[in-house]
Predict the structure.
Amino acid sequence: MVFAETLALAVLLPVEVMLLDPSKTPLSLLHVHAVTQLLTFATTTPVAFKEAAAKLDQPIREKLETSVRQALAGNSSGASSQTAKPTISLRSF
């Protein structure tokens, strides 16, 4: 079954990467949605994703990696700012 998933991703990944433009600021909505889809592929079928990504040409793979790293760096900084909300601690004496 992993073989079929790898073949499907081998077709889909280059198409998704064509939608990416990590150098553009601010990132386009199309770029954000494409990265979200790529991250979904990577989390749901990690073995097949890794195999399909390894078969990509070097420039395409670099564009994919750069975009995913940017997205993960943006999510981690956004998550930490959300969890750092002020809280009130009530103590009873």
Notes: Confidence is low (pLDDT under 50) at residues 78-83. The radius of gyration is 18 Å. Residues 36 and 75 are 11 Å apart (CA to CA). The longest helix spans residues 58-83.
